[in-house]
Write a structure and sequence with these properties.
Serine Threonine Protein Phosphatase 5, Tetratricopeptide repeat; mainly alpha; Pentatricopeptide repeat-containing protein; globular; PPR_rpt; 904 residues; TPR-like_helical_dom_sf; repeat; PPR_P_subfamily; 69% helix
């Protein structure tokens, strides 16, 4: 994005000419998401340069008062620029002392570019001995490949000076620096330079070359340097053999690594802890865990080696990855007992393992232990915790960890943001995920394909397909190519919304984009056509994918079986189920479940049990979904005894009810007039850790109402969809009493579900009473309640009340959804309350939303779709004056929308 300056008022007129001019103006800019990020100047100001010169001209510069003032302003780049100036009066000894003084300051870390001008000063003043030490420091300061390349180029140039030619020590240090980044081609050139300078390599030289190639698994090239060792009259040592163990393991030939390991004692080379670590790591990577543990156990007996922190960490990490986390924890305890202190990496792999086991409290406790021990968690440590909490749906806790991370000066990386974005999208809070995209850009982090794919998926899941397509264009604008995951998500999203023709168009366009239509895309498309009751076309697609060499998987068969069942074609569905094994696809439990459910809907219990028995004979254990299908069928038929028999079978099989199963049980007892039994099930539901859904509460309220408490109608006349239209508030009070009597008093989720039900029917008064009661019980109102209240107020054109609820949300730290703002702002404009609309928009801009999404959902989907062109212009100008940045494609979309509206 670029930083836009405000255009002359008014921004848009109802004139094609002004739009055309603006479009030409916009097209003159080279847009990209990152183009707006300013590049900080690396040049020092002349005043600092002069102040430094004045300071260092003073013999007692270390005691000069200006030194403390200058230090905070200095950076390695400023120092490099200063030393590069031709200061004829600058004493080289003072320049060196000043450089060394700054190097000792923790906040000042000289980089490779800082050393270069210092070396030039020292050499021009013939201070060769001290220059040699400085040269070694320069080489060791390299922290990136680019810095290593710079050092090689600089030192090669300096090597022309006869008095300052690279010696063996310098060459070896340079090779070691390049080896850190596995820059073998550059190492080969430096090695050749060494030979050309008549410098005789030593064993350290050869071992450095061997180790670099072995890191790449290139043992063939490494063996060439073994021959050079022998030609030089030297002998391979422990380091040589240990590198080859690493090399063989890197090329996934652990047996050859083992062979080298066994030969070492025969060659008179003692194996050390690194030898063991390389082989243990190779065995772990090959999933030969038991062999790795045996090797670990014999370290002390065979070679007198003590495992170090890396040994333990390798094993703990491997055990965690193999889901043997109990053993990993045991090894962690043993490690500490033997006096081997875990490091940051050890804690990180264990925290990651605990998070994958959903043991988040234990993982968090380990983070606290790290802090107590003075260990600074890395970005990987924090990422493991953030990912763990996000996957459990506890995104707010993950966000708190993110804030802790930043306060501890641990800089989040792209993966950190991706995990949070994934968490927000999973909990259907894509507006918060989009806001994180802006924070990434502010941090100068480039979003990845994964970032955009997660956001596209999030928008699709919330039904915002148009915004998903806008993200696709934003992705391309940022130089990223949408992949099969991106398009697969869009196809799935379109099919979910019944827009199958558009999904067909995407599939047809992929070939020219060089993207192969995969099984997931075909499956989504087949499912979409089945949902649209176009089963014949779905079958044609199924045959087409086979013809194109794309093999259907179990999921593909399942969606087609489901589509056939929905069309009453159970026989064809059964035949397709039979074809699965013949096609090399094993039917899943879902394959059978779909057919069983459809048969039960038709009360074909005998046929359903035949399929059930077939499923069991195929080695499948019935799951909760299948048992629930039988429960529904029996309750629908009023067969309570048979339903209770199914429940008994579930218990015998060790199958625990899930949320849906509990709801079905509640409904079943309610239909039989056994309300107390229904509430007993509700209590069991709470005890099992399930929060009742909105539908669960709807079922309970329906049966309470049918008990004659507020409706004098036949029970059969009350449809579950109409519950919230007819239920009285007093029935809810009865619900609360019943819940309390059965040991499961109403909680935040209860009030939220009930308030949402009333709001959907426009019953704001009852919803408000629930909100008041909730707050009087000491419970904090949640985002969902406020969102429903705002939307309900807007539906009733009670915009002042909607604005009040939005303000309350912001006061409580709850970020409202953009949909709520759209309804409110558009409603205020419709009512002619322009000032309030603009004031609300100003408040919105301070909330940290993604600016593009604000423009998409409020300006384009809100105002322009309502034909409010002037209001769109007004708010866009506010965004400009507020410093909001928009992408080029968003501006283009605005222009296209204005042009269409203007021409109507």
């Amino acid at each position: 994005m670029i930083q836009w300056t405000a255009l002359p008022t008014p921004l848009f007129r109802s004139s094609g000419q002004s739009i055309s001019l603006l479009f030409s103006f916009i097209k003159s800019f080279p847009f990209s998401i990152t183009s707006s990020i300013p590049v900080e100047s690396q040049e020092p100001s002349s005043s600092i340069d002069q102040q430094l010169l004045n300071l260092l001209s003073n013999p007692n510069w270390q005691k000069h008062p200006s030194l403390k003032i200058l230090i905070p302003s200095l950076s390695p780049s400023l120092l490099s620029s200063f030393l590069s100036q031709n200061h004829s009066n600058l004493n080289p000894h003072i320049a060196l002392s000043f450089f060394n003084f700054l190097s000792r300051i923790p906040s000042f870390k000289p980089n490779v570019h800082s050393y270069a001008p210092l070396l030039r000063i020292l050499i021009s003043n013939k201070l060769f001995q001290v220059a040699q030490k400085t040269r070694l420091s320069m080489i060791k300061s390299c922290e990136t490949r680019d810095e290593a390349v710079f050092a090689v180029g600089f030192l090669r140039n300096m090597n022309r000076c006869d008095e300052f030619k690279l010696n063996l020590w310098a060459y070896n240090t340079l090779l070691m620096s390049l080896s850190r980044f596995v820059m073998t081609e550059e190492m080969k050139c430096v090695y050749d330079d060494m030979l050309n300078d008549m410098i005789k390599p030593d064993i350290y030289t050869f071992n450095t070359m061997i180790n670099a190639y072995c890191k790449l698994g290139n043992v063939v090239e490494a063996e060439l340097y073994v021959s050079k060792i022998l030609q030089a009259g030297l002998s391979p040592d422990t380091h040589t053999y240990t590198s080859f163990i690493l090399g063989h393991c890197r090329r996934k030939d652990v047996d050859s690594g083992f062979k080298v390991f066994r030969e070492m004692p025969k060659k008179g080379c003692r194996r050390n802890v690194v030898s063991y670590n390389n082989l243990i790591h190779g065995l772990c990577e090959a999933r030969r865990m038991d062999e790795a543990m045996r090797l670990f156990s014999g370290m002390g007996d065979d070679d007198g080696c003590c495992p170090n922190v890396r040994t333990y960490t390798i094993l703990i990490d491997a055990l965690c990855r193999l889901d043997r986390r109990a053993e990993a924890l045991s090894l962690f305890g043993e490690m500490k007992e033997k006096g081997c202190e875990p490091n940051v990496h050890t804690y990180t792999v264990l925290i990651d393992g605990l998070c994958k086991d959903s043991k988040l409290d234990e993982a968090r406790a380990l983070l606290d232990v790290m802090s107590e021990k003075g260990l600074v968690p890395s970005v990987v440590t924090y990422n493991a915790l953030i990912d763990g909490y996000c996957k459990k749906g506890l995104v707010d806790v993950a966000l708190a960890i993110f804030d802790t991370m930043e306060s501890n000066n641990c800089i989040p990386n792209v993966r950190t943001y991706n995990e949070l974005i994934s968490g927000f999208c999973r909990t259907k809070k894509v507006h918060k995920a989009m806001a994180l995209l802006d924070r990434m850009l502010e941090r100068k982090l480039s979003p990845s394909n994964v970032t955009f794919n997660l956001l596209v998926h999030g928008q699709c899941k919330e039904g915002e397909i148009d915004s998903a397509f806008r993200l696709l264009r934003l992705m391309e604008e940022n130089g990223l190519a949408p992949d099969d995951w991106t398009y697969g998500t869009l196809v799935d999203g379109l099919c979910e919304r019944g827009r199958v023709e558009e999904a067909n168009t995407i599939i047809s366009s992929l070939k020219e984009k060089g993207i192969k239509v995969n099984v997931a895309m075909y499956t989504a498309l087949i499912d979409g056509h089945c949902r649209a009751e176009k089963v014949v076309f779905a079958l044609a697609l199924f045959n087409k994918m086979i013809e194109e060499g794309c093999s259907p998987n179990a999921c593909t068969y399942n969606v087609l079986i489901n589509g056939l069942c929905k069309q009453g074609k159970q026989l064809e569905a059964a035949q397709l189920l039979k074809r699965m094994p013949e096609s090399g696809v094993k039917p899943t439990i879902e394959s059978y479940s779909i057919l069983i459910e459809q048969l039960l809907k038709e009360c074909a219990f005998d046929h359903a049990y035949k399929v059930f028995n077939l499923m069991v004979s195929m080695g499948h254990k019935p799951d909760v979904c299948i048992y629930t299908s039988f429960l529904v069928a029996y309750y629908n038929e009023g067969k309570l005894k048979e339903a209770e028999d199914v429940m008994a079978k579930m218990a015998e099989a060790g199958v625990r009810p899930d949320l849906m199963a509990y709801t079905v049980l509640i409904d079943g007892y309610g239909r039989s007039g056994l309300l107390n039994r229904a509430f007993d099930v509700l209590k069991c539901m709470f005890d099992a850790g399930y929060e009742p859904s909105h539908y669960t509460y709807s079922v309970l309220i329906k049966h309470l109402a049918q008990g004659g408490l507020d409706l004098k109608t036949e029970a059969s006349s009350i449809n579950i969809a109409d519950v919230w239209k007819v239920v009285k508030y007093e029935t809810l009070l009865n619900l609360f009493d019943k819940m309390g009597e059965h040991g499961c008093p109403p909680n935040t989720n209860t009030f939220s579900s009930l308030a949402i039900g009333f709001c959907r029917e426009g019953r704001l008064e009852e919803a408000s009473r629930l909100l008041d009661r909730m707050q009087s019980c000491g419970m904090s109102s949640c985002e969902d309640i406020y969102t429903s209240m705002v939307n309900c107020c807007c539906k009733l054109r009670m915009y002042e009340d909607a604005a009040r609820f939005l303000d309350t949300m912001l006061t409580q730290g709850i970020l409202p959804r953009l949909e709520s703002y759209k309804l409110l702002i558009c409603g205020l404009y419709d009512d002619g309350n322009n000032d309030k609309a603009k004031a609300t928009f100003f408040r919105l801009l301070d909330c940290g939303y993604n600016n593009d999404e604000v423009a998409w959902k409020l300006l384009i989907d809100g105002l322009l779709k309502r034909g409010l062109v002037d209001r769109c212009s007004e708010l866009l100008e506010i965004m400009e004056k507020n410093g909001s940045r928009l992408s080029s494609q968003t501006y283009t979309l605005l222009l296209e929308g204005l042009d269409r509206t203007d021409n109507k």
